[in-house]
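Late entry, written up from scratch paper. The run itself happened at the end of the previous shift, but nothing got recorded in the book at the time, so transcribing now.
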Amino acid sequence: MKVLLLDRDESYTQKAVHFLGKNPEIQLSVCNDPDICRRMVQEEHFQVILFDSEFELLDPEEFRKKNTAFGYISSEREIINDLPTIYKYDSTSLITEQIMQIYSEHTHHELKQDDDESDAVRTRVISFFPVNGGSGSSSMAMAAAIALSREPDKNVLYLTLEQRHAEMLLFSSAEVKSLTDIVSMLRTNYPVKEGKKLFQTVIQHDQRFSPGKLDYIQGWQNITDCLSLTPAVLNTILEILRKQFSYHYIIIDADFIVSDVLRALIAGSDKIVFVSSGADTANAKVDGIHRYLEIVERDIETMPKKYMIFNQYYGLKSEESVVRDMQVIGRFARYRTDQHNLLSTEGLITQILLQENGNPFRELM
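Output as recorded:
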C-alpha cells in the first residue's frame, strides 16, 4: 500500500520512514513542500494520504482522487475536520493498523457509492462464519452459492478463506492455481488494474450445479498459507472482484478467528451469516460474537446486516435471547441419522435446496 505523509517535521518523517518502512505492507513516501506534493500526487497513485495537523496546506479535496483515502496525523489526540486522525506517537504497529483501517473503510464507502450511482452490476459480498465446530457453515455457504446462482440472471463466485477448506468435496478442482497464488502476487505490489488477468488464471467454472453462472476459487495450497493474508491484501481482492468482474454475489466461507483480517472482512461485507447448532455451548459462543461485533461496529463506517442459520437444530426455548439483532433465515433439522443413512456434503446440500422452492437463501438477495 502506497502512503504519502505530508509533514514539515523532518525529524519525525525520518523516523516514520525508518520504522514504518520495516512493514512490507506499507510503502511510505514523505513530503514537506506543497508544490512537490501536488506533483507527486499527479504522477503517482497513493492509496492513503496523511496530513500533519500543522501542515499549512490546502484543502485535502485538492488531492482527491478515486480510491484515495485521507486522514490526519497529529501530535495531539484529536479529531480534525471529521476525518480519521492518527496520534503521531502511538506504536508503529498501532499506526500501521490505523492506516489500514482508514483505507479499508474508505474503499468500502466508495464501492457502496459506486453501486448507488452506476447502472453496472452491484456486487454483494456475503460472508459465512461458524459459531461452533461442526455447525456446517461451509455446507451452508456452498448451498447458498448454488442457490443464488440458480436465480435468473445472477452470477456468483464462491471463495473460501478457511484454513482447512473443503470445497473440493463439492467442486471438482483441477490442479490449477489457488488463493495462495493470488495472495502471493498481490503482496508484491502487483498492479491492481491488472488484477482481472491474475484472477482469470485462478477462477474455475462449475460444470455440475449451475454451469456458466457459478465460479469458485480453490482454497489455500497449504494450511499455513492463510498466514500470508493481510487486511490490505483482502481489501485489494474484494476491490478487484467488485470492480473488474460482474458477479452479483460473492459468497465467502471464512473462519471466525479474531484478527485484523476478520475485522477487514466484516467491514468489507454487505451481509454476514452465522451458522450455529443451537446447542448450549454454541449459544454461549454466540454471546461472545455479539460482544465482538459491538466493538467492531464502533470503529467501522457501515455495519453489514447480520443473519443466523440454525443447522442440526431441534429448537430453542428463546431464540430471541440468542440471536438478538440477527435475522434467522434458516432452521435445518439434524441430518445425521444412523450409519446406513449418513449423507455426503452433496447429499446434504441437495436436501437443503429442496426447501423453500429450491432457494432457502432468498433473504440474502
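The longest helix spans residues 92-117.
(Scratch paper discarded after transcription.)
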